[in-house]
Design a protein that fits this description.
two-stranded antiparallel ribbon; globular; binds flavin-adenine dinucleotide
Length: 578
């Protein structure tokens, strides 16, 4: 711990001349910042979960993740993350002489972050990769989020929107390779002139976001060209993140009903499409990312998928961004935990490190449990995506798990996120609440957490989506699949056995709407426990069941593990420098 003499620059006006300029005190007992940790190799929970779900992942992929972990933990990229947040994007609607430009100007550090995240192939790349690619990407998403979550918005939308392009082969032919390119090309140019592109999604309007059927943006048929049926769009979007993206997938009312349209920023003839950015949102957090309000003034859009089938088309994309919300939150939880562990190990109070006081050990160990459980559940969803995309699902089990666990993971992991961030912040005491240079890292995490819970479908919408997945004939197979999913941990803990015995029967589609959150929570906890049994040490599984399943009151406040919990082992496993 460094001790630094601290001198006041202004000498006193009267007397004490001999002490003018003398040090007033020494700065000590202030922890050093957490930097230089490898965010992949230093995360035992993530590595174990990845090894379980993707045992055949090659040495190259693992080396790539280790390289990403080193970069994401480096002081150099941490400085870029800070700068990108301290200098948020600026909208220029017009140029100097009054022409409409609708350009968003970013600090150069944002470009560096986008360059690195795309170089590691966390956006559209996995769709061009073989089996395991989506799991590699999911692990990388958890890692990079810990450096800077704002850039993960365009990264996630590009990832989610890419498969929709397959519904329009001509668009796919022109765009897919550029979406998969491990590069960032920020130049505002038509697609043909670029070597890499990013995509966004526009659904939410002023009068409704959860209920997209309320969309009023109109699409009128305009003819046909190389990209298929062309429409002109008139209307608006109230939230339209990453407006600098090269194209957005947009919902609009066509003559045949709500449909999905591909709306590029630049038209093939080299002119700007008529998508006008009204203003950027003034957000609680997520400051490095631009989120905007736009108007379509006869913008050109090419139909993607069937006319009138826009909702299922968008929901397919939404399912992927929902998974990313869970992955991102797991990453933020891990980051907040590491900061708390790092700080409390160095900070002394009442004669010893804060981390060695029994009650703080309970808090830290409890946070570590939730962090690992969040990673486990989010990666489980990624496995179901990977297996179904690559046709490695002979029994259909993975497809059922993908449908069931996507809303469950988005709901539960994100719901825990804000609570988690508050507690981790408190571990740092007053320093946790301070925005050093305007954007303290812990404060940044705290502000980001609610966003993952709100966008792409807020908590209620997720819980209701779980109920929807169980309606009619879907309930029976889902119940059987859940029972099979939990089977490997049966007999390992009495509290788990009680939940696992009762839960599948609750997937009968008869749960009233007002109890949907409780069902989502219980499915999440049961699956998390079953996963921890399979890929974490026994003490993690047992501690999780003892606390989350046998003592549900432990969900109310962290630091509620029973006295016999393996505090040291949980903390040691989670420690970033272990
Ligand atoms: C920073 C940011 C960026 C965003 N970027 C984008 C973007 O790029 N593209 C895009 O399309 N959207 C974007 N969104 C919008 C986001 O997806 C929506 O805000 C979200 O889906 C909720 O919609 P809403 O705001 O209209 O809320 P509402 O739909 O009005 O919902 C309000 C509340 O009511 C609840 N609710 C709604 N229906 C029910 C029901 N039947 N039963 C019980 N409760 C219900 C919801 O859970 C929510 O808590 C962004 C949002 C934010 C904050």
């Amino acid at each position: 711990m460094s001790r630094t003499p601290h001198a006041d620059a202004q000498p006193p006006r009267h007397g004490l001349a001999a002490e003018a300029g003398a040090p007033t005190h020494e700065v000590f007992n202030q922890p050093e910042p957490l930097t230089g940790a490898n965010l992949f190799t230093g995360d035992a929970g993530l590595r174990d979960a990845l090894a379980f779900h993707a045992p055949a992942l090659g040495a190259d992929a693992l080396a790539g993740l280790a390289a990403l972990g080193e970069e994401a933990g480096s002081a150099a990229l941490q400085a870029h993350a800070r700068l990108a947040n301290e200098h948020p994007p600026v909208l220029h609607t017009h140029d100097r002489v009054g022409r409409r430009v609708d350009e968003v100007e970013f600090h150069p550090s944002y470009g560096v972050l986008m360059d690195r995240v795309t170089a590691h192939g966390l956006h559209g790349t996995p769709w061009a990769d073989g089996p395991g690619g989506h799991l590699r990407r999911a692990a990388g998403f958890i890692v990079f989020t810990q450096l800077e979550p704002s850039v993960m918005c365009p990264v996630s939308m590009t990832y989610a929107a890419t498969p929709a392009l397959q519904a329009n082969p001509a668009l796919h032919a022109d765009w897919a390779a550029r979406v998969a390119a491990r590069a960032y090309d920020a130049r505002p140019l038509p697609v043909a002139a670029k070597h890499a592109v990013t995509l966004g999604m526009g659904m939410t309007e002023k009068q409704g976001g959860s209920d997209v059927r309320a969309n009023t943006t109109r699409a009128e048929r305009d003819g046909e060209d190389a990209w298929g049926e062309r429409f002109r769009l008139v209307g608006h979007k109230w939230f339209f993140s990453a407006p600098q993206s090269d194209a957005h997938l947009v919902l609009a009312q066509a003559p045949g009903g709500l449909s999905c349209f591909f709306v590029p920023r630049w038209l093939p003839d080299g002119t700007r499409n008529a998508v006008q950015v009204q203003r950027l949102k003034d957000k609680l957090g997520n400051h490095a990312n631009a989120s905007s309000e736009v108007e379509f003034r006869g913008a050109f859009g090419w139909r993607v998928g069937e006319e009138g089938r826009g909702v299922p088309q968008i929901l397919a994309m939404g399912a992927l961004t929902r998974m990313d919300c869970a992955l991102g939150t797991a990453g933020l939880m891990r980051q907040a935990l590491c900061l708390a562990l790092h700080h409390t190990a160095q900070r002394q109070a009442f004669g010893k490190p804060v981390a060695s006081h029994p009650l703080m050990r309970n808090v830290l160990a409890d946070l570590a449990l939730d962090s690992e459980a969040a990673t486990a559940l989010a990666l489980r969803v990624a496995r179901s995506v990977d297996r179904t995309v690559h046709g490695q699902d002979p029994t259909g089990h993975e497809a059922l798990m993908r449908r069931l666990l996507t809303p469950v993971a988005k709901y539960w992991v994100c719901k825990r996120g804000s609570h988690f961030a508050q507690e981790a912040m408190e571990c740092l005491g007053g320093n946790g609440y301070v925005e050093e240079g305007g954007h303290g890292v812990m404060a940044r995490i705290y502000r980001e957490m609610p966003l993952n819970s709100i966008w792409e479908g807020a908590g209620n919408i997720m819980a209701l989506d779980l109920l929807r997945s169980l309606q009619g004939p879907q309930g029976g197979p889902a119940a059987e699949a859940l029972a099979a999913e939990l089977a490997p941990a049966r007999g390992a803990h009495p509290a788990f056995d009680r939940l696992a015995a009762a839960l599948p029967a609750r997937l009968d589609g008869a749960t009233p709407e007002c109890e949907a959150r409780m069902l989502a929570r219980d499915v999440a906890l049961a699956v998390q426990a079953a996963l921890l049994h399979q890929h974490a040490p026994d003490f993690v599984f047992t501690a999780f069941c003892d606390a989350r399943l046998a003592r549900p009151e432990s969900l109310a406040a962290y630091g509620s593990l029973p006295a016999a919990a393996p505090f040291d082992a949980l903390i040691q496993r989670a420690h970033p420098t272990a």
